[in-house]
Design brief:
The protein is of the alpha+beta class. It contains 8 helices and 4 strands, in the order E-H-E-H-E-E-H-H-H-H-H-H. Helix 1 packs across helix 6 and helix 4 runs parallel beside helix 6.
């Protein structure tokens, strides 16, 4: 049994949880909640960075960074659904990287408000992160992940999770300016039940 250490609100953890369900690997992966702020949580022994998600293998070895975990799960499954071996591979990985970068910029804004006193926040730095998010949204709007008959790939999952996080932490403010992405996410939600079942509590 694999142990997935994550938190319910982690977008990168959600990305892995959706991948597990898409591949039908739920019976092989146990969800074990982790608290990154708790120094006594065993997460810090399993992952030196103390970050989620972390996937602990049966032999105790730990994999971290959602991209590494996704690669492992895709190889474990063996069908090349998440990361195709065809000519689509680079485009799928490019979309995953863009979605991850969007998430990083959004998370940095959240952490700035959570951990830094307002008097120490730098408006220009926050604007820089907001601009990254906006550029990524525009890039996705003009180059949406393509559906594959083989199944839902990680480029689609990554974008859906990133948009879901913007809904969760930023009140869905992106939707008015990007109706194409809002329509795309609605379609993804209909196609992929795991998107709804992994949503953080509102």
């Amino acid at each position: 049994m694999l142990s997935l250490r994550t938190s319910i609100a982690s977008p990168f953890g959600r990305k892995v949880r959706i991948a597990v369900e898409v591949l039908g690997l739920q019976e092989f992966v146990r969800l074990d909640p982790a608290d990154t702020s708790d120094a006594s949580d065993s997460l810090r022994q399993q992952n030196p960075l103390g970050k989620v998600p972390t996937l602990v293998l049966p032999d105790g070895q730990a994999l971290f960074d959602s991209r590494v975990i996704i690669e492992y799960l895709d190889l474990m499954d063996g069908r090349g659904i998440l990361i195709p071996s065809t000519e689509d591979r680079i485009r799928v990985l490019r979309h995953q990287a863009l979605a991850d970068g969007l998430l990083d910029a959004a998370l940095l804004q959240v952490y700035e408000a959570r951990f830094r006193p307002e008097s120490h926040r730098l408006a220009s730095w926050l604007d820089y992160q907001r601009e990254k998010v906006e550029r990524a949204l525009k890039a996705f709007a003009s180059d949406l992940p393509v559906q594959r008959s083989a199944g839902v790939h990680i480029g689609e999952i990554g974008l859906a999770v990133a948009l879901g996080y913007l809904d969760f932490r930023f009140q869905g403010n992106w939707r008015t300016a990007h109706p194409v992405l809002a329509d795309w996410l609605q379609g993804f939600d209909r196609r992929v039940p795991a998107f709804g079942s992994t949503a953080p509590p509102s």
